[in-house]
Amino acid sequence: MDTLGALALATEPPNNDLMKRLPVGRKGNFISNVMWRNVLGQSLYQFLIIWYLQTRGKAAFQLSGPDSDLILNTLIFNSFVFCQVFNEISSREMEKVNVFKGILNNYVFVAVISCTVIFQIIIVEFLGTFASTHPLSLQQWIVSIFLGFLGMPVAAALKMIPVGSNIPRGK
Questions:
Q1: Which is an annotated GO molecular function term of this record (predicted)?
Q2: In 3D, which of 156, 151, 161, 154 has the Cα closest to residue 34?
Q3: What is the rounded distance in angstroms from the CA atom of residue 27 to the CA atom of residue 4?
């Protein structure tokens, strides 16, 4: 999944803001303060979602019976994957809130995101024993996709937090 996400983000065409930045020297930070803010914020959000599902998921979804652990683990896995999918979309722009601008112009990005979602459906719904998953109900699919989607407003809110940028800017 990380490989597909990296491929999707690596195919983003350069924009004019990128050309205004000065080069980063050998001793410069590879990860900027803006990146740290976004990574730490999304990590905290995803940790809280996964932790909640792990500790309260059975009660929240009224899971019981011999398959309840497998269903819960599948739900956690599905929620995590959709958190990543929506985070990839949010990561198209490090500082701008409108991450959808020009998204359809990048066919590779759209194809990779689409393939990730299609593979996820196949893994969850059809590869049960092989992938240690259990088919989810429509409600469980909607909730796991919604939990992933909530990462987008979280990302937008994070982008409102000012951080001192350690990326030098050109004139």
A1: P-type calcium transporter activity
A2: 161
A3: 30
91: left (phi over 0), alpha (psi -120 to 50) or beta: alpha
With a pLDDT cut of 90, the percent of the chain lying above it is 56
Asked if the model's pLDDT at residue 153 lies above 50, the reply is yes
- CA 81 from centroid of its chain's CA atoms: 7
Q: What is the pLDDT of residue 130?
A: 86
| Exposed e or buried b per residue across 16-54, where buried means at least 16 C-beta atoms within 10 angstroms of its C-beta | eeeeeeeeeeeeeeeebebbebbeebbeebbeebbeebe
CA–CA gap between residue 23 and residue 116 (Å, rounded): 33
- Spacing of C-alpha 166 from chain mean position: 24
Is residue 70 scored above 80 in pLDDT?
A: yes
Nearest to 92 by CA among 77, 79, 78, 110: 110
* Residues in Cβ contact with 96 at an 8 Å cutoff, skipping those fewer than 6 apart: 159
Distances (CA, A) of 159 to 15, 20, 42: 18, 20, 11
Residue written as token pair 């959808």 = 100
For 41, the token pair is 């914020």
- List the domain boundaries for the chain: 1-7+33-160
